[in-house]
Amino acid sequence: MMKTTCLPALLALSLVAACGTGPVGPTFGRTTVQNVGSDDLLKLRAGPGLGFKVILGLPDGTRLIRRDCVTELGQRWCRVALADAPAIVGYVSDDYLTGD
Predict the structure, then answer these.
(1) pLDDT for 42
(2) Are strands 85-93 and 54-58 parallel, antiparallel or unpaired?
């Protein structure tokens, strides 16, 4: 049986682990859609590849939060969230993101 003095410490460790922000590095953080063109939109997709459903189109200048990136069939795809609506998450081609 666990002593009650250990319980608060265990709860505190659980809370800290649940509140982690995830990896931090050059591929994570704020970025912006660039070089899409004035008459086109960057497609935010449900998965990392052209075969995934398009969630919405993003114009140049859209601010994003880059989460992580993967390479599929020689193309780098990044999982992003909209900076102004973080609940909207999908994948975009890294070719159209700034290096922020």
Answers:
(1) 98
(2) unpaired
User: Contact at 8 Å (CB) between 80 and 31?
Assistant: yes
Residue 78 sits in a domain whose CATH number is 2.30.30.40
- Put simply, whether the predicted model's pTM sits higher than 0.90 gets the answer no
Best-predicted range by mean pLDDT (11-15, 58-62, 96-100):
58-62
Residue 91 in contact with residue 67, Cβ under 8 Å? no
Residue 21 in domain: no
Per-residue pLDDT tens over the stretch 7-17: 344 333 333 33
Dist CA 88 CA 81 (whole Å): 6
pLDDT at residue 100, rounded to an integer: 59
The encoded tokens of residue 93 equal 């081609």
Structural domain total, the chain: 1
* Domain region containing 79: 27-96
In this structure, how many other beta carbons lie within 10 angstroms of the beta carbon of residue 62?
23
Distance between CA atoms of residues 78 and 55, nearest Å: 14
